[in-house]
Amino acid sequence: MNVLAEWTALVCKELDIDPEKVDRDAVLDLTRDVAHGVARPAAPLTAYLLGLAQGAGTASPEALERLSTLAKNWGQATAETLGDR
Fold first, then answer.
1. C-alpha–C-alpha distance, residues 10 and 25, integer Å
2. Cα–Cα 20 to 30 A to 47, which of 34, 36, 60, 83?
3. Contact (CB, 8 A) for 31 and 46
């Protein structure tokens, strides 16, 4: 078992989360997309906000994919938003 797998297992145990419900690779992909497409500090913040939404039951099933797409298109979305002013 590698360090990341060990850490994930330990955190799941500590937080009483079923490790089978954690898609670690998808979360890592999301944070990579946000770090590269938006800003590095936005990556952990996005993961935290997604976790809050999922815990509250307000995250849609495709929320992770939607956030990843949003991050990948951040430059375009920002230019369009700023162009509206």
1. 17
2. 83
3. yes
Q: How far is CA 52 from CA 34, 45, 48, 68, 76, in A?
A: 17, 10, 6, 17, 27
Q: Enumerate the domain spans of the chain.
A: 23-83
pLDDT in tens, 11-56: 999 999 999 999 999 999 999 999 999 999 999 999 999 999 999 9
Residue 85 has pLDDT above 70, yes or no: no
- What is the total residue count of the chain? 85
Which pTM does this prediction carry?
A: 0.82
